[in-house]
Amino acid sequence: MSFFRDKVVLVTGSSDGIGRAAAVLFAKAGARVTVTGRSEQKLTVTKSECVAAGAKADNILELAGDVTDQQFIEKLVQGTVDKFGRLDVLVNNAGAAIIDFSGKNGLDIPIDVFDNTMDLNVRSVVLISQLAIPHLEKTQGAIVNVSSIVSSLFTCSQPYYPMSKTCLDQLTVQMAGTLIKKGIRVNSVNPGIIRTNFIAAAGLPSEYAKQFYDKADDKESTQIPLGKCGVPDDIAKIIVFLADRSQSEIIVGQRIVADGGSLLKNNLLSADI
Ligand code: NDP
Q1: Which Gene3D superfamilies would you find in this protein's record (predicted)?
Q2: Fewer Cβ in 10 A, N or C end of the chain?
Q3: The whole model's pTM is what?
Q4: How many C-beta neighbours within 10 Å does residue 88 have?
Q5: Pocket-forming residues, ligand 1, beta carbon under 6 Å
Q6: Is the ipTM reported for this complex over the cut 0.95?
């Protein structure tokens, strides 16, 4: 029997991309799933995909809202427990790069961009996790954070998004160390380039996004040693693995890098590959 049968999973940012793919895989494995994002319309699509994967419609709860809104996230966690009676897995996946289009770079980019980035990619994760921990302790559950390879220490013209993901990695380690004493496992997956709505959501033209992903997918390009970029399902499978105690119990406080070898290219000490 599937480990997830009748278990309850909350996936933030599941109205699209990696979060949607994870919600569908959890649903397929028999979990009851809360799906959430700001767009009600996109959540409806996620729910339909979960049902098409085998879930009963009543086992998928849609709650639309902004994860930076404290009142909403209280409703999100409480609404999940009220509906399903428990919480076994929290996937902190909602996130975005907030790009400054004024032509500035580095620390010339205004502080409100920093504040908004940290609010979304770090503060919301702390707050949702705080609310979820008492429920996860009862079920001896798991938290999976979705970070990024940009958390590694290399330079970038728009620094606040990478800074937020480095902070998220530190949060994963800090939570893992304390929460394992309560029986809750915490890990993260750190994707490289994954073909999603991420670039368009950052406000860049969809044609630019297409060219960016096509270049990453070009086998002739040396950008990704594997020869292709990832798709949401690649990361969803790792999220499900890290949430599944029967498969990954021994993994605690780790970052699983999933990037087709891209980071090897950023190591100045490594030979060109
Ligand atoms: P998408 O843009 O496809 O999905 C992002 C999801 O987050 C959507 O469901 C979106 O929902 C939700 N979201 C964004 N902002 C908010 C908000 N303020 N409140 C609630 N939900 C929000 O991107 P990805 O699937 O690629 O991104 C998922 C995670 O993966 C992010 O944390 C991202 O940083 C990370 N990542 C992505 C990589 C990539 O190459 N794609 C690489 C490395 C990491 P809605 O629009 O409905 O609000």
Answers
A1: NAD(P)-binding Rossmann-like Domain
A2: N
A3: 0.97
A4: 24
A5: 13-19, 37-39, 42, 66-68, 93-96, 120, 146, 148, 191, 193-194, 196-198, 201
A6: yes
